[in-house]
């Protein structure tokens, strides 16, 4: 299924997160190196955390980016919402097994 490698996805995420960390609103904040947050099967979610953001009460104290495993594009907020909505509907439709 994967048409891009994990290493390629990590580089895509690092490039996007670097651009976002350099936004004026994050001026003066330090961020951790990019790391894998979660493997979703169809995408990888990466993050770059900031202890300063956490200390100021930001939840989460990190920037996230989701990279599609098929073609390496960065998911939009709409794509992310659609994915989790479909996943929730799928789980809701599954019968609940109960112990006898």
Summarize the structure.
The protein has 100 residues and is of the alpha+beta class. It is 38% helix and 19% strand. A hairpin with a 3-residue loop joins strand 1 and strand 2.
Keywords:
single chain; 100 residues; alpha+beta
Strand content: 15-25%
Could you tell me the radius of gyration in angstroms? Answer: 16 Å
Low-confidence region ranges: none
Q: How many extended strands?
A: 3
- What about the largest sheet? 3 strands, antiparallel
Question: How many H/I helices?
Answer: 3
SSE order, as H and E?
HEEHEH
Structurally, the number of domains stands at 1
Helical residues, percent? 25-40%
Tell me, briefly, the overall form.
globular
Strand order of the largest sheet: 1-2-3
Give the overall average pLDDT: 90
- What class do helices, strands and sheet pairing give? alpha+beta
End-to-end C-alpha gap: 38 Å
Which helices and strands occur, and which strands form pairs?
Blueprint: H1 6-21, E1 35-39, E2 43-49, H2 51-55, E3 62-68, H3 77-93
Antiparallel strand pairs: 1-2, 2-3
Kindly describe this structure:
The chain has 100 residues and is of the alpha+beta class. It has one domain. It has a three-stranded antiparallel β-sheet with strand order 1-2-3. Strand 1 and strand 2 form a beta hairpin. The termini are far apart. The mean pLDDT is 90.
């Amino acid at each position: 299924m994967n048409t891009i490698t994990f290493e390629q996805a990590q580089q895509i995420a690092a490039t996007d997160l670097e651009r976002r960390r350099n936004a004026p609103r994050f001026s003066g904040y330090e961020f951790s190196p990019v790391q894998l947050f979660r493997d979703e099967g169809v995408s990888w979610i990466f993050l770059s955390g900031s202890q300063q953001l956490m200390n100021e009460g930001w939840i989460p104290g990190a920037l996230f980016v989701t990279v599609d495993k098929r073609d390496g594009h960065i998911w939009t907020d709409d794509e992310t919402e659609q994915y989790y909505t479909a996943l929730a509907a799928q789980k809701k439709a599954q019968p609940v097994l109960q112990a006898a």
